[in-house]
Amino acid sequence: MPDDIGSQPQAVAAAAAPAPSRAANGARRKRLFMILGGVVLAGAVIWGLYYFLVGSRHVTTDNAYVNADTAQVTALVAGPILQAPVGETSVVKTGQVIAVIEPADYQLAVDRARAELGQAQRRVGQYFANDEALGAQTAARTADVARAEAMLASARSDYARAEVEYGRRRNLSASGAVSGDELTQAENRYQAAKAALSAAQAGLAQAKATAAQSAGQQKAANALVAGASAEGNPEVAAARAKLAQAELDLARTTIRSPVDGVVARKSVVVGQKVANGAPVMSIVPIQTAYVDANFKEVQLRKVRPGQPVELTSDLYGKGVKFHGKVSGLGGGTGSAFALIPAQNATGNWIKVVQRVPVRITLDPKELAEHPLRVGLSMEAVIDISK
Question: Which residues of 239-266 are buried (b: 16+ CB within 10 A; e: fewer)?
């Protein structure tokens, strides 16, 4: 019995022992919740400060790519490729020869056009000479008309005098005052004067006809040369234009680079026959590359041209930063210019946040130090506080 009484306090003590352990666990959990709450609160404060100081002043996207106004070089004349001295990845300068088309046929065309120009110049020179000669001839025929008119006037005077004298002699012969010989002589003079008058009239008519014919010929000749010099004559001008076109076609057989850049796509090889307008190669002016950054429409509220932009590329990593400026915003979203535009007038429409391309120009010095290539991925951060 005493053993049972002694063991009861020990059992009670053993039953009361877990109570402090549960209290300690509760305190520990409370401290953990307080620490977790403090961390969450601190994170919220930090995020709020970041958004207020940084995030609200910048918009960012990694949907950005390098682009450039690639020069698509095409053949302006047809023919086989004689030379193609540059290849893909070659760096070329403005005016550098990048391909040559066989020029023999075009050289012959130039020689032929030059000969035709010489013929036209000689032909037009003859036109001017004929015009001068016919002008002199017309002046001579005009003088002939004047002489014929003078001769006609003299013949009329002689005829009138002979007619009067013959009439007087004929009247006097009836009374015997004039001998028959005198009457005969007067009649002969009258007939001669009459014949001379007829001849003078015919001569004047002939002179006028000849003068009119000469004037017509001179007018026709003058029409070929009027209003222009020998070099400005339409025939010479047409021949000269034909020569200029032939020389231009010959010059176009030598294809030169229109810009400084890198050959990105070569479409011809030596011996290949190309048609007029056929693509020869593409040249990318990497020194004037720019970035098209596709921002969400909700990010563009404060984006304006001229705002500074900081960019990084996957090629060089975060250690190399590019600086640029917003050049402008695109005229529409990417989906608006898709080959198959989105059809939103349906019952199953789901709103999708659209992206608008923002053109960003880059610092040429930074581009020269760290060249970029078309299509490279970029990350762009626009400072919208400025």
Answer: bbebbeebbebbebbebbbebbbbbbeb
